[in-house]
C-alpha cells in the first residue's frame, strides 16, 4: 500500500474477521492477485471500454463513464502501483462520489481535472481508495518468532523494526507489546518505524484509542498492563504513553524514489501489502529492502504472500519469514 506508499492496505484473513495488507499502503478489497507483468498491467490500464463516453448507471447522482473509471485505474496504478480490478467500478464510484460532493464537482471528469491541479486532493484521493482493516496480533506466529529474535539480540544493541503498513496502529502496537514482554520493561531498547500511505489512518494510530471490540485479541493481562480506559462509557481503551514512545509514525510511499528511513533494520514487517502490486513492483520494493536489513534481519510477509519470484534477493526460512541470501540464519 499503503500504496505508493504503503497502501496498507492489509487484507482480511479468516481469523481477523477484518481486512490486507497495506500500509499501509490496500484499494478497498481489491480482488486481483499480485502476479502479472507490469507491462501488461499498463496495457490493461490504457484499454478504454467501448462507448466510454456513455453516461453511467441511470439514477446515479454523478456521471461516471467507463473512460472516467479507466482514468482512475491508471492514476492509481501509476502513483501507487496498485492494479485495480475492472470489477471495482461501483466501488470506485461509491468512494469518490463523496469527494465530488465535498468539492462541489458536478462530474467525475471535473473532479479528475481537479486532481491535476490540487496536490492536496491527491492524498484524499488515495485515502478514499484504500482499505485499512487489521487487528492486534494478526498472524500470531510472527510475534512468537519476533520474541525469539529479541531474546537472541538481548542487551547487545538497540533493535530497529520497520512496519510498512501500520494502518490504524494495531500491528505496530502489537510489535511494541511484544518488545515490552520480551525485555520485561516498558522502555525496551527497541525503535519501531510505522508507516502507511493513508494519512487518515496514521492519525488514528497516533492517538492509540481503540473500541472494546477491537481489543478482542488482547489478553486480559496485556489489556491491564498496556492500556488504560478512555474517557466515556463505551469500553474504549488507550495505549499507554510508554508504548507510543517506542513508535515513530510517518507517511511513506513504497513507490517513492527515496524512503525517509535508514537501516539497518532487524525486522521489516511488510505483511499483506505486496498482494496489491504486480510482480515487477514487488521485486523492486524487495530489492530496496535488502540493503536495509542486517545480515540476520528478517522480512515478515503476509500469510497469502510468497516472495519466491525474488529468490535472488531473499530466501525463506519458513512460516512466511525471509532473510537475505548471505544471512547466517537457516
Q: What's the helix and strand layout?
A:
Elements: H1 38-46, H2 66-80, H3 89-103, H4 108-117, H5 119-128, H6 141-153, E1 159-163, H7 170-183, E2 190-196, H8 199-207, E3 209-210, H9 220-226, E4 227-229, E5 237-239, H10 241-244, E6 247-251, E7 265-269, H11 279-289, E8 293-300, E9 314-316, E10 321-324
Helix pairs in contact: 1-2, 4-5, 6-7
What does the model show?
This protein is α/β, with parallel strands linked by helices and 330 residues long. It has two domains: 91 residues, Chemotaxis receptor methyltransferase CheR, N-terminal domain (Chemotaxis Receptor Methyltransferase Cher, domain 1, Orthogonal Bundle), CATH 1.10.155.10; 184 residues, Rossmann fold (3-Layer(aba) Sandwich), CATH 3.40.50.150. Helix content is 35%, strand content 14%. It contains eleven helices and ten strands. The chain is globular. The two termini are 30 Å apart. The N terminus is likely disordered.
What CATH calls the topology of the largest domain is Rossmann fold
CATH homologous superfamily name of the largest domain? Vaccinia Virus protein VP39
Largest sheet: 7 strands, mixed
Please tally the helical runs, counting DSSP H or I stretches of 4 or more residues: 11
Order of helices and strands: HHHHHHEHEHEHEEHEEHEEE
SS content category: alpha/beta
Instruction: Determine and state the CATH class of the largest domain.
Output: Alpha Beta
Name its key features.
330 residues; alpha/beta; Chemotaxis Receptor Methyltransferase Cher, domain 1; Rossmann fold; 2 domains; three-stranded antiparallel β-sheet
Amino acid at each position: 500500500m499503503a500504496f505508493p506508499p504503503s497502501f496498507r492496505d492489509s487484507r482480511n484473513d479468516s481469523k481477523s474477521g477484518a481486512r490486507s495488507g497495506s500500509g499501509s499502503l490496500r484499494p478497498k478489497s481489491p480482488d486481483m492477485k499480485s502476479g502479472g507483468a507490469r507491462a501488461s498491467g499498463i496495457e490493461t490500464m490504457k484499454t478504454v471500454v467501448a462507448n466510454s463516453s456513455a453516461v453511467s448507471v441511470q439514477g446515479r447522482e454523478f456521471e461516471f463513464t467507463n473512460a472516467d473509471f479507466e482514468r482512475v485505474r491508471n492514476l492509481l496504478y501509476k502513483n501507487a502501483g496498485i492494479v485495480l480490478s475492472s470489477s471495482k467500478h461501483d466501488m470506485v464510484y461509491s468512494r469518490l462520489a463523496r469527494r465530488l460532493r465535498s468539492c462541489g464537482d458536478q462530474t467525475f471528469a471535473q473532479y479528475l481535472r481537479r486532481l491535476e491541479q490540487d496536490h492536496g486532493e491527491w492524498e484524499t484521493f488515495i485515502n478514499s481508495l484504500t482499505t485499512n482493516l487489521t487487528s492486534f496480533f494478526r498472524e500470531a506466529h510472527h510475534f512468537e518468532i519476533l520474541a525469539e529474535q529479541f531474546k537472541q539480540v538481548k542487551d547487545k544493541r538497540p533493535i530497529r523494526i520497520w512496519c510498512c503498513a501500520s494502518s490504524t496502529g494495531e500491528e505496530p502496537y502489537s510489535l511494541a507489546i511484544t518488545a515490552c514482554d520480551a525485555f520485561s520493561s516498558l522502555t525496551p531498547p527497541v525503535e519501531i518505524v510505522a508507516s502507511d500511505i493513508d494519512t487518515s489512518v496514521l492519525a488514528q494510530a497516533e492517538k492509540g484509542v481503540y473500541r472494546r471490540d477491537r481489543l478482542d485479541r488482547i489478553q486480559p493481562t496485556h489489556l491491564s498492563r498496556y492500556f488504560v480506559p478512555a474517557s466515556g462509557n463505551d469500553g474504549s481503551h488507550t495505549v499507554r504513553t510508554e508504548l507510543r514512545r517506542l513508535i515513530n509514525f510517518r507517511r511513506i510511499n513504497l513507490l517513492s524514489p527515496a524512503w525517509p528511513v535508514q537501516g539497518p533494520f532487524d525486522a521489516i514487517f511488510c505483511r499483506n501489502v505486496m498482494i496489491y502490486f504486480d510482480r515487477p513492483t514487488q521485486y523492486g520494493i524487495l530489492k530496496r529492502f535488502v540493503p536495509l536489513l542486517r545480515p540476520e534481519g528478517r522480512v515478515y510477509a503476509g500469510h497469502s504472500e510468497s516472495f519466491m519470484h525474488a529468490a535472488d534477493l531473499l530466501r525463506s526460512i519458513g512460516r512466511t519469514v525471509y532473510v537475505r541470501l548471505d544471512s547466517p540464519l537457516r
